[in-house]
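Schema walk-through. Below, the input block comes first and the output block second. Nothing else is stored per chain. Lengths vary across the set, and this one has 183 residues.
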Amino acid sequence: MKLKTMLDLLAEASALSGQADFIVVGSLSILALEENFRVPQEMAMSNDVACYTRADPERIFDVLDALGEHSPRHRATGCFIDPVSPALPSLPDGWQARLNPVSRPGVNAWCLDPNDAALSKYARGEPRDRRWIRAGLRASVVSLPIVRSRLHSMDFFDQQEADKAHQLITEDAAWLQRMQPPH
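--- output ---
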């Protein structure tokens, strides 16, 4: 997906929900950097914008029938809104202050910082999340030192999720070390 496509979809969500500000928490939060950074394809492959409305998070569910998965919009374009609760992603302290804003008239997307998104993805640990993280590491838009520095302030769902995230970060540090050319 491209930033324009995401903003078009959020503009439709704005018209339906009466809300202009959206928090984008999924993979496509990386699109906030599109104008200043060549976003790796692996980081923008998703066809769903995981988000909620900033002022009234529950309002995002008002757009589900028109813009959600299997909606007419999804069938016509292949893209859809994935309404989420603000409680869904595991995120580190201070993530709100690091949101990357992108706007166009009538709509504002507040997108997760790539390192905060990576931490959320480490908590979930699915294969597609690992591909996204590793693409970010290769492109130097995700930094393991920054990820590690924020890890201590994560509000994990449970100890199992925390243990998994720690393990995956350790694995990716070893992977990244193997990817580095010898000096």
